[in-house]
């Protein structure tokens, strides 16, 4: 595969198309700019992609099983909830909601499972075996819309300027898949409650000043254009003023408008809850009959600690059948809890590990000497709030990164995300689909990943046979 050099003309063309098609974010100064992206798609082994795709249904079934029988999961969460105040508060609100007039509404999964390839295992026959899950995002999985946009832009640039055939560029229907799933949950709600179609709206719970708002707006736009579904966009603080749960049937009303589905693009970091008002708004939604995406059980099930517990012997077997267990387990990296011996060994040689707190949203993990530093000073009571994860050394390949119209050529590593959707009622999986992908690439010498955080660049895969990948 040959991509032409990043000439000024090519960069200008790519940036113009990015701006023209809504591949944009707000910068830290508030101005609209193109989202950071790679000029061309990055080589990725087809077999690894297909395997990640197939795993989506396995993860959906695992998460449906959590809803079917939440008690063992609640018992797990209770063992570490106290070690981290934020997790503790999420769990307390979950428990409090379930003790109240709980309406046990169906839940909508809009997930993204992220993977890195373990470089030393990327040989022709083994590319798919090199797939290691970094994490599964169960709340506010970003970039379904912008990920679809970068795929379209790359399709254009790679076919027009590098003669790449469509067959090598997987179609990306993440945006459509997310909006179809939201629409189908919305219809389900109307049917369940015998409401005339269109009497309820959809609610997006968002952060004030969200920089990645266009990723959300594109979903909102499509929900109206393709499904005639109105979206209300509110922060938790606004909801505290504007929402109520109707006595008698548990309907969630925002300024009097009934809400069928509540989609959270907020509520996953401590800053989203500056006061009791926001917590109270979050708990009230959990107490309503609106379908939550996700509910607090799924949000907690997507935590780093549960990821680590599932990887323990027996951790996953209780939830799914043996064949599913084998498939899921084979993509797990080595994960460990903090205990005396492991902590001491890791302080001495931290390079094989990543130290992760109970947080989402990027920028929280520790690498290398940061790990030794943190572990040397960490109080023992805090240990259950952290996990250690085997550090994955992904294969490097050249990439041209574009930020604010400026190009830089680097050795990059890529992280693949597969978007999936599912609708679950009382533990029964009514729908389960893999819908699209996101590739994010970052300079190989940068440890953390997030696009919004400024480390990673939106990318898309171009299929190659594994021996084309430099390691
Ligand atoms: P968050 O919930 O903050 O997104 P992640 O677990 O996804 O946390 O980690 C954030 C980023 O850190 C990832 O996108 C990846 O770039 C890097 N990272 C996480 N785990 C590993 C790992 N085991 N090996 C190498 N890099 C990792
Ligand atoms: Mg992540």
Describe the structure.
The structure is a single chain. This protein is of the alpha+beta class. The chain is 37% helix and 25% strand. It has 14 helices and 21 strands. The chain has helices at residues 8-20, 46-68, 71-80, 85-99, 144-162, 174-192, 213-227, 236-242, 276-286, 296-301, 304-311, 322-329, 340-348, 369-377, and strands at 24-26, 32-34, 37-38, 42-45, 107-117, 131-137, 201-205, 231-234, 243-245, 252-254, 257-264, 291-293, 335-336, 353-357, 366-367, 386-390, 397-403, 406-425, 428-443, 457-459, 461-464. The strands form five sheets. Strands 3, 5, 6, 17, 18, 19 and 20 form a seven-stranded antiparallel β-sheet that branches. Helix 4 crosses helix 9, helix 5 (144-162) packs antiparallel against helix 6 (174-192) and helix 8 (236-242) packs across helix 9 (276-286). It is globular, with a radius of gyration of 22 Å. The two termini are 17 Å apart. Mean pLDDT is 95; it is low at 467-471.
List cofactors, ions and other ligands.
Answer: adenosine-5'-diphosphate, magnesium ion
Mean pLDDT: 95
Low-confidence spans: pLDDT under 50, at least 5 residues? 467-471
Number of helices: 14
| Structural class label | alpha+beta
Strand content: 25-35%
Subunit arrangement of the protein: single chain
The shape, in one word, is globular
**Number of E strands:** 21
Please bin the fraction of helical residues.
25-40%
Rg over C-alpha atoms, rounded to the nearest angstrom: 22 Å
Described by strand count, sense and barrel closure, the largest sheet is: 7 strands, antiparallel
Query: Alpha-carbon distance between the termini?
Result: 17 Å
